[in-house]
Amino acid sequence: KTVTRDFQLEAPFPTTVMAASEQALLQVGLIGAGRIARCHLASIASMSTKVKVVHISDPWEQGIADLSAQYGISRASADWKDLIADPEVQAVIICSPTALHADQIIAAAEAGKKIFCEKPVSLDISIVNQVADVIKKTNAFCMVAFQRRFDSNFMRIKQAVEDGTVGNLKMIHIVSRDPAPPPVTYIAQSGGLHMDMCIHDFDMAMWVAGSPIVEVMVMGGCTVDPKIAEAGDIDTSVVMGKCANGTIVTIDNCRATTYGYDQRFEAFGSNGAISTDNRSPNQCTIMGGNGVVKDKPMSFFMDRYAEAYTAEMEAFVDCCRANKPAPCGVEEGRVATVVAMAAKESLKSGVPAKVQGL
């Protein structure tokens, strides 16, 4: 059932008279009340002339109570199906656990809603394909979250590749290392390093290259925590890949560093190279008798990509309002997933693996 902010029962979808200015706003329903949902709510709050969250859903009653009060959300429900059935909701933002993504995308598409979903669509490629079929059949707008595409540094690298600044692209090298591993309980159900961590890097490499990765060779192991190995995963990996257009890709991942969140990217071509380094909380340099020192890079992915998350959500809202195609959708998520599957196959076999299902 749908409830008000103080969680007193009311009619499911109260009829309200909206001002003309409100009618122009994109009316959004948010599924989820966790960390990433809160991130997107903060972004939406900065776009109050374009979009408004009118319904939030999550089984966590206190979570939706707090967010409803903080952001002035008029309706809240424990069952996400109530949100999708809400006739005032024009677009749905899905920030629920991965196991629910596919069912929620399909239901929203069949209800005629525009959709934004956190990745991955599913850890099961057959389910991803099913979702892709429904999106195609219903002609639904569905954007899948790859926030790094909206980072200003990575956008500049892509521009330099597309406009010929670096010449004919030869190689892409990505360093992506987390400051600390997630809980082993998360790793055990995440699909593994290549599915939950490196999948962002696969997407970035293919987006910049403008070409899918068709073959991978992986070496990896556990250098951080033996409990990760006990959970059936690795915490350190190097991927070598080749794109259909001939671009060579190398991706260096580790679940832990001593110095913060390590995010570096280089594209090298016939005319030269373009690269981006880590972001720190400030740009200061301390120079003295003991050496030259800078602060460590940011230590949390939501701080490092704060601007990208806002730009990503703004792109979603603008595309919905203007009826433009999604900048990255289920197909991009599907392709990154099959590359991750090939990486897991190569790691297990010890030989290169062709990417199947492109």
Percentage of residues in strands: 15-25%
Radius of gyration: 21 Å
Largest sheet: 7 strands, mixed
Distance between the termini: 42 Å
Description:
The protein is α/β, with parallel strands linked by helices. The chain is about 40% helix and about 25% strand. It has 14 helices and 16 strands. The chain has helices at about 20-25, 35-45, 60-70, 80-85, 100-110, 125-140, 150-160, 185-190, 195, 200-210, 225-230, 300-305, 305-320, 330-350; strands at about 1-5, 25-30, 50-55, 75, 90-95, 115-120, 140-145, 170-175, 215-220, 235-245, 250-255, 260-270, 270-275, 285-290, 290-295, 355. It has a 7-stranded mixed β-sheet with strand order 1-4-3-2-5-6-7, with helices on both faces. A 7-stranded mixed β-sheet has the order 13-12-8-11-10-9-16. α3 links the parallel β3 and β4. α6 (about 125-140) runs antiparallel to α14 and α10 (about 200-210) crosses α14. The chain is globular and about 55 Å long. The model is unreliable at about 1-25 (pLDDT under 50).
Topology:
Layout: E1 2-3, H1 20-23, E2 26-31, H2 35-45, E3 51-57, H3 61-71, E4 75-77, H4 80-85, E5 91-94, H5 98-110, E6 114-118, H6 125-138, E7 142-145, H7 152-162, E8 169-177, H8 184-190, H9 193-196, H10 198-209, E9 213-221, H11 226-230, E10 236-243, E11 248-254, E12 262-269, E13 272-276, E14 285-288, E15 291-294, H12 301-304, H13 306-322, H14 330-349, E16 353-354
Parallel strand pairs: 2-3, 2-5, 3-4, 5-6, 6-7, 8-11
Antiparallel strand pairs: 1-4, 8-12, 9-10, 9-16, 10-11, 12-13, 14-15
